[in-house]
Amino acid sequence: QVQLVESGGGSVEAGGSLRLSCAASGYTFTRYCMGWFRQAPGKEREGVAIIDPDGTTSYADSVKGRFTISKDNAKNTVYLQMNSLKPDDTAMYYCARGAYYSCRLYSGDMNYWGKGTVVTISS
To answer: What is the pLDDT of residue 102?
Structure first.
C-alpha cells in the first residue's frame, strides 16, 4: 500500500533553515505529483509546494523565494528545503501524493497523506 513518511521537522529560530524529507513507497514514484502542505493551529490546511514528475514546481506566494521542493527518483523521496524561516511558518507539515501526474496546489488533488512532521519557528 502507499506509504508516505515525513522527517526533518524541529524547532529553529527565525531566519534559520530546515529540510523536510518524505519517503514514499508502495507505488510507482514517477507517475504522480507530490506536494507539501501545512496546517497551523486553528487554521485550515494550505498548500506549500507541488512538484510534478517532470520537475515542474509551484509554490504558495507566502513561501516563494524561501522554500524549494525537490525530489530524488532513485530514492523515492521528496524534499522541502526551507530557508529564512519565519514564526508564521510554524505548522504541522504534511507530505502528500497526488491523484494525477500534474497537480494544483490544492488538497483536493491529493489522495494520500503522510502523518506529518512538526515545524516550530521561534522569534
So the answer is: 87
